[in-house]
Description:
mainly alpha, single chain, 43% helix
Amino acid sequence: MLVKHDSSPDNPLLKRYFEKRDEKEFNANNVLHRQKIAKSQKYKCRICKQSLIGNEDLEKNHIVPEKLGGKSQYYNLELLHSSCHTQHHQLLEYYGGGKQYGKVREFFKKYGVEPSSKEGANMMKKSFVKFSYTVSE
């Protein structure tokens, strides 16, 4: 969509307008399950905090990885930009103790939480805050 000369997504007074416009565009171009996931994360990528609407492909990410018993339930899914998804998995392996996520398994065991549960997904989300995500150039 074209923007009038004095309108800009960078204008704080128009922020909500552009967010609503992005949501409408996303919903028009995506199936219902992707719409539901995007809505739950306020149409923002958790990694870069940017809008999910744009030219970059999106990847569905399991918050608790399937290798750990994470299920394909809405509470355990999020959409990430492809580049953010790649970066996330690299850091998950780094912080998680390799491809089998040994440290993550110990984390769940220590707190007695079932990884496939809603509580497990919420614990993982809180743990992701500690990840040192950087913008790759």
